[in-house]
């Protein structure tokens, strides 16, 4: 018996909060597609050639004018983010170039003085990328690199980077400050709070580092910080079981609000709860239990069906117990996360609900002129029925950044249960708690017909090379073997290639509901385009491998788990 399967069975026997679902009736099979694999590789190669020629070793390519940017401290974010995808695609020249470069990075300083370092972004991109490269090249892809010292340097550099980031944990609670500086001196920002995702999305990478080094220091630090999120205080910060607020005090570990969602600023905290259980089901049973609580509350309290398209399912955000009928591209990972949990917990209910969420996010792609989904979208709940009025739109919001999300603050006390009056969210004026108050069912006049047909309207119509919909297509395909998800992925990658490709690479577009994306909004090729978009698009069309999510293990989903940047690391069991 595979050791991992034995440990999985043992973990279920020790503590299982819900009955296991029925095993898969028959083995799920998959079909590869060489033509589509090669097409995705061509997109990667074009993006990489542009970056390598005009921007390497800077962080990002500016494809319109062949310039470069250093938004991630000038350590070569695109190169590190591209490594694990290049390995899976078996592109030896690219892998060699990156593994020759990484040992030369000075992770003790930034090129610019007082350059802010995001502990969250540095962890998921740099630390995650190097650990993934190490696990892959130390294992199934060792043949791609002949210089063993370059493989070992991936782990050495991971330790160096983590050691330099330790200054972030120098707080009264040892919850990390998300912003630190290395140059001219190592110091933290002195912020009084940190966010749910930026605290809760370190634990996988830092635990993996500890396990590889056989040094518990890194795991202990991040797991200690996570403990404040797993046992949230005060109780009012948990308006629904398992669903918590966003901001946490670094002084006492208490939540400062009761607002949140599955979108930017909160998303990957919930993502990592089940992924830590996948990583090691014996050490992280409590993480599993908290994911189950959050998932059950999401199904019970947050699942929403648009008034004009009751066949669709989205997850609302919350401010206390008041729902906000808005979501975003960043949140579209949630379908894949529910599907992964369904496989890991042998629970078909979670899997099937995840597939419903995938259908909802797919609808945001199918409805637009570019066949790409928007950054932010709104809808009205089913209780509105046909009682809908229109009004002129408010000014649009700007792009959402993962470390600077659209976070909603309470109008008065952060722990209020119900608003004194209807609140304004974007273009929709609603009293969000349907059970407690009537909903003011207003749609922007210019998008009334669009909403009637499609079940949502565009709050922010930009697209910034986001991966989350493709990510959920990947999990949906791996869980079902249904080729429709391959077709959806192909439609998406064709649209992304046709719409965002410009000059020497790819960049953000202004309006997904205009043919061709309207125009280019921002001259920047994000590093996660290499790490996430092209990895998920590629893996959905390739042959079986040990790194693929396994739906046939009766709870054992494989030897690898993906971090939130799609860097895959070996599981501990």
* Amount of beta strand: 5-15%
Q: Tell me about the biggest sheet?
A: 3 strands, antiparallel
Report the top-level CATH class: Mainly Alpha
Strand order of the biggest β-sheet? 3-4-5
Shape: globular
Number of distinct helices: 17
List unreliable stretches of 5+ residues.
Answer: 1-24, 399-437
How many distinct domains?
1
- The beta-strand count equals 25
Helix content: 40-55%
Average residue pLDDT: 90
Structural class: alpha+beta
CA(first)-CA(last) distance = 13 Å
What does the secondary structure layout of this molecule look like, with pairings?
Elements: H1 3-14, H2 34-54, E1 60-62, E2 67-69, H3 77-88, H4 92-101, E3 117-118, H5 119-137, H6 148-165, E4 179-181, E5 187-188, E6 193-195, H7 196-200, H8 203-213, H9 217-230, E7 247-249, E8 259-260, H10 267-279, H11 285-302, E9 303-304, E10 314-315, E11 317-319, E12 322-324, E13 326-328, H12 334-344, H13 348-366, E14 376-378, E15 389-391, E16 423-425, E17 428-430, E18 442-444, H14 448-454, E19 457-460, H15 468-480, H16 484-500, E20 501-502, E21 505-506, E22 508-509, E23 520-522, H17 528-539, E24 560-562, E25 568-570
Parallel strand pairs: 15-18
Antiparallel strand pairs: 1-2, 3-4, 4-5, 6-7, 8-11, 9-10, 11-12, 13-14, 14-19, 16-17, 20-21, 22-23, 24-25
Helix pairs in contact: 2-3, 2-17, 3-4, 3-5, 3-17, 5-6, 5-8, 6-8, 8-9, 10-11, 10-12, 12-13, 12-15, 13-15, 15-16, 15-17
